[in-house]
Specification:
2 domains; alpha/beta; disordered N terminus; 5 strands; 420 residues
Length: 420
Amino acid sequence: MQEENRQGIIPKRDISSKRVLGNPVLYAQFLRNNLDIPFLKNIQPEDIEDVSERYIPYLGTEFGSDTVKRIRLHIPEKTGGTGGKKTDAGGQEPLFLISLTEHKSRVDYNVSMQLLKYMLCIWLDYEKEMEQKKEGASDRKGFRYPLIIPIVYYEGKAPWTADRCFQARIACGNMLFHDWVPDFTYEVVRLHDYSNEELLERGDEMSLIMLFNKIQDHVDLSEFLKLPGERLDDMVRDTPEAILNIIVSVMESLCVKIGTTEEEMQECVARVRERRMGYLFENIEKMDIQAERRNTAEARMEAKRAQEEAKVAQEEAKAAQEEAKAAQEEAKAAQEEAKAAQEEAKAAREEIKEAQEALKKAHEKAEAEALNIQEEKYKSLVEVCKELGATREMTVEKVSKNCSIDKEEAEKKVDIYWEM
C-alpha cells in the first residue's frame, strides 16, 4: 500500500484502480485471466458483490485503494462445494476475496501481516452477521467461517521478492514452531509478468487497462505504440459506456504520468470515447517520460538535500538551545552563588559590627574602671597624707609626684578629697 495512503492521501492512480477493481465486469475479467484457480474460471459479473465500504470504518484510510468482494460460487457437491444448498448459518456460504492494490515499484514485505488484519476483520464481521441472523450460530459445531483468498495486484517492474507464506514472516514460524503459527498463502498478480501480446490476445477491457498501466517509461510507450491499432479498437468495440468511462479515467491518469498537455489529454480521451484506440498519442509532440523522471528524481534529490540541511539546521539549533540552556543554568548557579556570597558577606558585616560594638563597650568599661582606679588612688593618697599630718601644699606636691600629673590637676584632686 502506498505511503501516501497511510498519511490519509489517496493519489489519482489509486482512485482509478479502485474504480477498475470496483467494477464487477472488470473484476470478473481480472479473476478469470490472472488467477490459476479452477473455480474462478467461470466467474461472471453477477456473481460478484463489492462489500469494501463496510470495512472502511474498521480499517480506516489505509484501506482506501483495496477491495473486498463477496463471490457467489458454483461448485458441484462432488468437488466439495455446497451444491447450492442452504448452510446452517443461512444462505449459501460465500467466498471472500481481498484485493490489495500495490502501486509502488518496491515490494512491500509486510503485506502478509496487512492481509491477515483484513482477513480477521472480515471473519469477525461475518460472525457478527451470522449471529444477527441466528443467535449462537458461531457456537455450533458445524459453523464455518468463509474462505478468503488474498490477492496482491502488483504493478511494479521489479520482481516480487516478498515471501507469499505468512509463516515466513514469524520468527521460526515455518521451522520448528510451525504447528503453533497460523498460516496462509496469498496470490500475487504481477502486471509485468504478462507480455503486451498476451494481454492483447485476451481482448477484454481489463487487459486493455493493464496494457495502459504497463507504460512506465519511454520503452514501454514505444512498445505500446507498436501494437496493431485495429486489435486495440476491437477491445472496446462493444464496451458499455460505464466501463468506457473507467477506461477514460485510466487514460487520464496515464496522460498525467507521461506529462501530456491538457489539450493532448483531451484528444486522447476523445479517441477513447470514439473507440479509436489505434490512434492514441498520434499527434502528441513530446512524451519524454525519462526526462520527467529525471526531473522528478532531481526534485526528490533537491528535496532530500533540503531535508538534510533542515535536519542539520535543526540539530544545530537544538545544540544551540542546549548550550543556551546550559549557559542559563550556569548563570543561574552563578547568581545563586553570588546571592549566597552576598548573604555571607552581610552576615560577616553584622558579626563585625557586633564585635566592634562589643569592643567599644569593653573599651568604655575599661576606661571607666581605669578612671575609677585612678580616682581611688587620688583619694587614698590624700587621706594618707592628711592622716600623717601633711599640709595641704605638701599633699598637692605628693599627689602630683606620685600620680604623674601637673600641680594644677593635683590641686583639683586634693580639693575634691581633702574635706571628705
